[in-house]
Amino acid sequence: MRDAVIVDAVRSPLGRRNGRLKDMHPVDLSADVLNALTERTGIAPDLVDDVIWGCVGQVGEQAGNPGRNAVLAAGWPETIPGTTIERQCGSSQQALHFAAAGVIAGQYDVAVAGGVESMSRIPMGSARRVGLGDPNSDRIKSRYDGIEFNQMRGAEMLAEQYGIDRGWMDAYSVRSHDRAAAAIDAGRFDAEIVPIELADGSVFSVDEGVRRGSTVDKLSTLTPILGEDRYVTAGNASQISDGASALLVMSSERANELGLRPLARVHTATVVGTDPVTMLAGPIPATALALKRAGLSLSDIGAFEVNEAFASVVGAWLTETGADETLVNPNGGAIALGHPLGGSGARLATTLVHHLRASGVRYGLQTMCEGGGMANATILENLSV
């Protein structure tokens, strides 16, 4: 039976909004991580059967199929196709699922999965602002009594449902920054980050969103986004950022033929739908489904990447699953590193793959909430254990 393995996984450093990557076209940023895959593995680009790319804000510079445009910008042969998918924040995690499924089905021998988002150049929600109407039709609105789908409100609702207070959310956020800073200092991201040469000739190689010396006292001074009596602030939510990531996927048989040593196997891939009003609780049932299909228990998983869209999302997931918090986002998460929407799923997978290899952990699970009430969950297996 065919399988799907990840031979290499790379990402750009994440730039904060209007930071080091603000002048870089998202297609060119995508091209740089594509080229890093072939340079690091030594494979010829023309072996790639398809590039499956995640991107949320598909307007302006991110319109017109950036997956295909990245292939062209990378200088790869014109014969290599590319497509772009959008499953909200889980777009590039879903790209990995599609790439793995295509390899297992025999439709691909070699595929690239990844994604990009330049939130400095294409502000979040840009596609909704072009004057072409509301994506939520009257039928959808009537089904949910006219309640507006709002991620901030969903994060607040999770906090209330699970009894997660502002103090816990701020303390968790500080831990995210502390862990990310420690990972940078220890060189734990070095194997996954592709240094990006900028137009001014400088090289960008370190995530720039991490705030060293952050404290709960400092975060407590921030005003909640939805009002004084609320919990969610800019300090305990993910950072708006720019970045791209890519993973090279093939069968283990093909990897052996090419003389490549896989980093991990895509063991299980799931996606679920959930209430689009609360919206952000999806990682809970997605995790349960992934474990069920994998025939594994929570205790079998040695590392988790739970996207830190908001601290309350991780808090609810921890409360419901009972997972060991020390195993969750051990190198920090989106609160510290950033959340470049369409590129985040692949970024989490990239970080998880390299963490599994470095730590000697066999199984890792990643999951993330998605707009519209969905969530992906992926279990990766370290093949060197």
TrEMBL record:
Tree of life domain: Bacteria
| Alphabetical keyword list | Acyltransferase, Transferase
Annotated Thiolase C-terminal domain ranges read 261-381
Q: Which PANTHER family match?
A: ACETYL-COA C-ACYLTRANSFERASE, BLR7806 PROTEIN
Q: What is the lineage of its organism?
A: Bacteria, Bacillati, Actinomycetota, Actinomycetes, Mycobacteriales
EC numbers for this chain: 2.3.1.16
Q: Say yes or no: keyword Membrane present.
A: no
Q: Which family does it belong to?
A: Belongs to the thiolase-like superfamily. Thiolase family.
Q: Any idea which GO molecular function terms this record carries?
A: acetyl-CoA C-acyltransferase activity
Identify the InterPro entries for this entry: Thiolase (IPR002155), Thiolase-like (IPR016039), Thiolase_C (IPR020617), Thiolase_CS (IPR020613), Thiolase_N (IPR020616)
| Domain spans labelled Thiolase N-terminal | 5-252
**Looking at its record, which EC class is this enzyme?**
transferase
Q: Signal: present as a keyword of the record?
A: no
The record ties this protein, via Pfam families, to: Thiolase_C, Thiolase_N
- What is the name of this protein? Acetyl-CoA C-acyltransferase
